[in-house]
Amino acid sequence: EALWNWLVDDRESASEFVLTQLLQAPCGSWRDNLVLLAEETWYDSPGQRSQLIDCLLDIALKRRNDVDAAAEPVSFAAIRRAASILPVEQLDRLSDFLRPSAVNTVAVTLRSLVRIIEAEIPSVTCETRLSERLATLVGKYIDPDVYRRGDVDAMLFNGLLLLAVLNPPAFESAVGGLRGLNRPYLFCQLREELLTMRNGWGVDERRADDGRIDKAVAAIDRLAHQAK
Hints:
This protein is an all-alpha fold. The protein has helices at 2-9, 11-24, 29-38, 46-63, 71-84, 106-119, 129-141, 144-147, 153-166, 168-175, 185-200, 203-208, 212-227. The longest helix has 18 residues, at 46-63. The protein is globular.
């Protein structure tokens, strides 16, 4: 509680203390608490931000394989905070969290990735570890038998949003599977979210788009028309 209060009263000094402790703390409840506190920290220094990213991703990679009660909230907090300051060129660093583990980190990672590209679009799209993993996940979730089991709506939706930006050919290949789900409203929701994302980008991001969103929307419109 004292640290929470310190972060409120003197965020800069308290943030430096949290980072220093995170870099030194061994595994245990103290480090877990520092990870949770890290979501309230702020760093102007690129060096400190890089240190925090490295530290949190390393902790998350380890804690996601644990089974104690704190493993899930700590893993989630570490991924969220690291992603919140992760440069868009380093998106691939989150791809490991889209793989099976004791703590299921897929949903929180997909949402964190979407938040990154909502703010800044990658200038280059290509076949990367991340885009390949996204295509695999979307292919799994869009299977009618898997979809009927529930709990995959948000993950499928976020996966498709990410593919539209990161790997347009994979998006066009995957999005056709929506017809097999008998959920025509998903076409409308996906279209609206992509346009909202583009409208939220600045001038530089729109220039870097290279028509990716327009192509994704055109593919959705074609499929939606065929589904009628």
